[in-house]
Amino acid sequence: MAKKLLSILLAGVMTLSLVACGSGDSSSDAGTATESGSESQAADGEYTEITYAFVTFNTVPDDTSEVEEAINKISREKIGVEVHLMPLSIADYTQQVSLAVQNGEIDLFHTLGDLGNDIASDMCYDITDMIDTDAPETKALFEEEWLKTTMQDGKLYAIPTLKPFALQPMLIYRKDIAEELNLDLDSVKSAEDLTAIFAQVKEAHPEMTPLAPVSQGDSGLTRWIPNIDWLGDSFASPGGCLQGEDMTVTSYYDLADFEKYAKLVRDWYQNDYIMKDAATTTSAAAELMSSGNYFAYSASYSYPLEDTAASLSAPSGYEVGAISLGDAYLDTSSMNAVAQVVASTSEHPDAALKFLNLTYTDPDVINTMLYGLEGVDYVKNDDGTVSYPEGQDASTVPYTAQLSCGVLGNFFIQWPLEGSGSEESLKWEDEQNHNAPSSPAMGFSFDSSSVQTQYTAVSNVIQQYLPGIACGSVDTDTALAEFRQALKDAGYDDILAAKHTPLVYA
Questions:
Q1: Rounded CA gap, 194 and 459, in Å?
Q2: Which domains does the chain have, with CATH numbers?
Q3: Which of 69, 104, 341, 396 could cross-link with 345 by S-S, CB 3.0 to 4.6 Å?
Q4: What pLDDT does 103 receive?
């Protein structure tokens, strides 16, 4: 969307706490990217070909060849590289990337809250000695402490997506419904306060479901638990974490807050306040909202409330508003949850890193990846913003990956959608990056290689139990007790002990 992105992470990622594009300011160092194309060209004049896999929260396009050609006109001249784009849906992304790396089919991908596991699984190329040669302009964009979040044992395995980092939990809601029912959204300060709001929506519109999931198995529950440091993992992976100032590594799923919010979502499920198929749907929030059958969803973003709402309105199909459900918090995962990786099996790691450098420094490259072709997929406005061609939107243009704005490259050189973004917003976002409360374990680096067997077993348990618990489709007390026991049986305590003894900092 215009100024953000989330992860997703990201989707997340995550969550994708990922959505919206940047300032449109191409007056930075964008034009200084290394123009060393001859180094990547074969003697016969052919170009080095690489493949870039990335998640799209929009419709996966049928054909990317014309967009690739537009990018390659730039990358051939600058670095002697041609790129093949591999946009993947959030539901398929992690599995398909893992298989593609194993088979040597991709050269670049990004993490979605799973960098530590990707390093332990030997999916990430060590770029420590390459970055000064192949991506020096990108390196210069980062503070030294920020790059430490993607290091392990002194080696650099990824480059964080450059974007506002401090994530704030929000509710994204339809303004027309809120205005029609005169909903008192100013009174909402936490997720618990939403029950009364959802009851009003359901009473007035029994055909509508008040809450859509962010993505498959993700009701938004993880966003409402404050001051969490995932210690290299995430909500959807083995999750040994810290909460607040307590330096004791604990199970995320044993936290009192986790149980409290899981019971809250269960209550919503029983009252038809949340999508019944939230645990299994393959549709993401924006797509569900655009159907007209949902009032709201909850996710985390790193942008002012008004900017977030403006950037999410077009993809949602309705004008939406945004309210805060908690405070922003910085931990290592805030920076490395979405990070760009050269695949360990790449046959052309130097070429891949050179192309990655363009996504941080060349506005035309990154914006073509996101928006597609001018006049076909978007139009450029006089004020530097972009919009969809007349009569079209994100669901009808041949190509757009606009919802991946905060997933790829440098947010601050990405064009904003019409009606979102401002210099004041950029200042606010920069201040959040530097001044938001942060974890006492910032920079934590965890080598999970000693507990990979446990990670696999625990991940399987989480995939089995977590979606139902987080989306309210199972009895909380019964399922949570079974879940916690299954985690212990799978070796979860070994992971927690490995993280806690000792805490190792990059």
A1: 31
A2: 27-164+335-373 (3.40.190.10)
A3: 104
A4: 97
